[in-house]
Every structure is written in structure tokens, then in C-alpha cells.
Amino acid sequence: MPDAQQLAQQILDAVGGSANIADVENCMTRLRVEVVSDSSVELEDLKATDGVMAAIAAGSNLQIVLGPGLVDRVADGLEALRAAAPSAAAGGPGASPEELAARGASIKATARSRSDGRTMRAIRKISAIFIPLIPALIACGLIAGINGILTNLGWVPALTPFLGVLSSGFLSLLAVFVGMNAAKEFGGTPILGGAVGGIIVAAGVANVTVFGETLAPGQGGVLGALAGGILAAYVERFMRRVTPDVIALIVVPTVTVLVAGSITLGVLMSVAGVVSVAIGTAATWLLANGGAFAGFVLGGLFLPLVMTGMHQGLIPIHTTLIDQTGWNVLLPVLAMGGAGQIGA
Question: Which of 8, 27, 201, 223 is the catalytic position?
Fold first, then answer.
């Protein structure tokens, strides 16, 4: 296993040093580096680096595939190297922290606007909302699987209720976490997004009737929470612009939850509920009637999406299926392309 700190240094050298890095992010397997100048990147050297599985360049955006576990350590190492690097290039030896931060934000915005189209920017934001949830989804899913095995075999019956609570706690509040992340990603306060997302799973929703239809707790699921969290961020940002500072602490959060929560309860839950049911129905129908051809198309398209990072745009669909049915019927089919390559 390559040394993470050494690999971070090699990556830093290959991308042109700290002065050429505008931003660093990582997901479960990939290190994403926004560079100031893509002409300073030695892509072939990067691909040849021991520990780097693949490197993909799209303008000023680099995606470096390192694998799970290692990518977290390398990202931390790269951030440490950047923090220790001289900052003269950013603003001179006499620059204040505020000036350095402003300079960094400017470089980051310029790099992203140059490399990202609207579609990629949207996918980046959606992935930033859902990727932080993946570790908890993995943990709760594995615990649920273990609990299912114990239940079916009739082993340790006293333990299964305990494991059931451990596995379902996160999923029962998934809308809250999606709302928090959505608000944060779109420039709002996370807890206000969580407050709006929490409306979707509140038990009292069963007492609310909208357009002659009684709502159900959880209706709309993660899609409703996603839309509600984004709406909360926009409402909050607007209110901060128009509210005097002396009353902002009270007025802004109150109006944000009142307006975004009302629209979520009155409109978004119903609309998102229809969309969620349609996604589940379409996925079930496709697998039941599409046969081998559907598997061929889905499995064949998934790998190119992974190569470009656009597979992250499917995360809301995966999460919706898990939230709606308890499992994801699409992911095993999508993974067949990669499994076929390994087998070959």
C-alpha cells in the first residue's frame, strides 16, 4: 500500500504545486482537484504515479482515482501540504487572512466557471448533498442485512429488535439530513434546511389535508427534502438581504421556516411524492419487462458515466429507491459492466 503522505506530495508536484491548486475535494474513491492553470499539470506523470488508478482531466478539473480509504488520507495530506506551503503567491508576505481568503475564493470561482458547464455544476451540487450520507447508508444497510439474516434463520431473537433500531434510525430521518446538506450547499443555514426537511417525516403531517388529499408522513421522501432544503436556502438568502440587522436573528429563520415549510407542505411533498412513486414504478417495470436488453443498456452506459463523474447525478434516484422500497434494484444492474470487466 503506497504511503499516503508521499503520494500526496507526488500528486502536488504533478499538478503544478500548491500555487496551482484552487480547491481540493474527495468522494469515496476519487480526489477532485481544481487547478488554476491546466497547462501546468503533468497528466501522464500523474497517471504513472504508484497508487493512482486513473486520472481524468476536464478543463481545470482533475479527477484522480485512488480507491476507498486511501483517498481520505491523501486528501488530508494534500491539504496539510497546501497549508504549509508559502502563501506569497496568493497575496504577498503582508497579505491579511481576509485578503488571502478572498484571493483563494476568486481563484476557485474562476477555475470552476472555466471548466464546468451548467450540467456539471448541477451534478457537483447534487453530489455534494448526497455523498456525505453514503457512509451512514452503508453502515445502516449492512446492519439491516445482518438483522435480516438473523431474523430469517431465527437466531438470537432478542438481538433483532436492537439491530432493527440501529439500522432504521438514520433512514427514518434521512429527509432531515438531505434538507440540511441541501441548504448548506446552496448557501443557507444547514439547520434551517433540516427543519424544513423534518416537516416531511413529522407524524403530524397525517393531520394535514392539501387539495382534498390527506398527506402521509414521509410523502415525497428525499426528493421533497432536497427541494425543500434548496428553497429554504433561497428564502433565507433573500431575507438576509432585506432584513435589518437588528431583527435579523429572529425574523430571518422564522420567515425561512414559515415560507419554505409551507410551500414544502402544501406543494413540494405532493409533487415529490408523485415523482418518487414514478421512479420506483419505472425501475420495477424496466427490470421486469426490459430483460437482458435493459441490463445491457444500463450496464453499458454506467461506466462512461463513472469515468466522467456524471454517475453522481444518479445518487438521488438510488436514495429515493432505498427510501421508498428499502433496497436499490438498479445498482446491481448498473454494476454489471464493471463486474464484466473484472471477469474479463
Answer: 27
pLDDT tens for 196-243 read 999 999 999 999 999 888 999 999 999 999 999 999 999 999 999 999
pTM: 0.73
Q: What is the distance between the alpha carbons of residues 154 and 168, in angstroms, rounded to a whole number?
A: 20
Residue 27 bears catalytic tag: yes
Q: Where are the domains of the chain?
A: 4-116, 290-344
Residues 6+ apart with CB under 8 A from 235: 255, 256, 259, 260
Burial class for 343, CB neighbours closer than 10 Å (0-12, 13-18, 19+): exposed
Please tell us whether the domain made up of 4-116 is placed in CATH 3.30.70.890: no
In 3-state terms, what secondary structure has residue 9?
Answer: helix
Instruction: Point out which residues pair with 219 in neighbouring strands.
Output: none
Per-residue buried b or exposed e for 75-103, using 16+ beta carbons within 10 Å of the residue's own CB: bebbeebbeeeebeebbeeeeeeeeeeeb
